[in-house]
Specification:
5-stranded antiparallel sheet, single chain, mainly beta, flat
Length: 119
């Protein structure tokens, strides 16, 4: 019910990110802070992008390390939680979308155009 991967040189600054209080969970976990609960979703998958810091993520009882460049995909029924067990803030961005909407055909959806890029 989940996938994890590392992205090299992902994001070195979060200055472009803005968050509205009350709109989403605080994306910054102080050292020792955790969500404090497990949760699932009825229909939505989530992608967690870890921008800075180190911590642990848990899905269905499996605990694994996360840090800058980690990306975790969790299916709707995956029981999930995150914590900062490091010494610096753990910064993440969570993107939620309707589950089971992507198919194998989606991987071939893009078209490369035979024209120059003009800047």
């Amino acid at each position: 019910s989940f996938q994890t991967m590392r992205l090299k040189n992902f994001l070195h600054s979060r200055s472009f990110l803005t968050f509205q209080p009350g709109f989403a969970a605080d994306p910054v976990f102080a050292p020792g802070q955790e969500t404090g609960f497990l949760h699932t979703h009825k229909n939505h998958e989530e992608l967690y992008f870890f921008l800075r810091g180190k911590g642990e993520f848990q899905v269905d009882g499996r605990v694994f390390p996360v840090g800058e460049g980690s990306v975790v995909r969790v299916a709707p029924d995956g029981r999930r939680s995150v914590r900062n067990n490091g010494t610096e803030p753990l910064v993440m961005l969570c993107v939620q979308y309707r589950g089971n909407t992507f198919t194998a055909e989606d991987a071939t959806d893009g078209n490369l155009l035979n024209e120059p890029v003009k800047w």
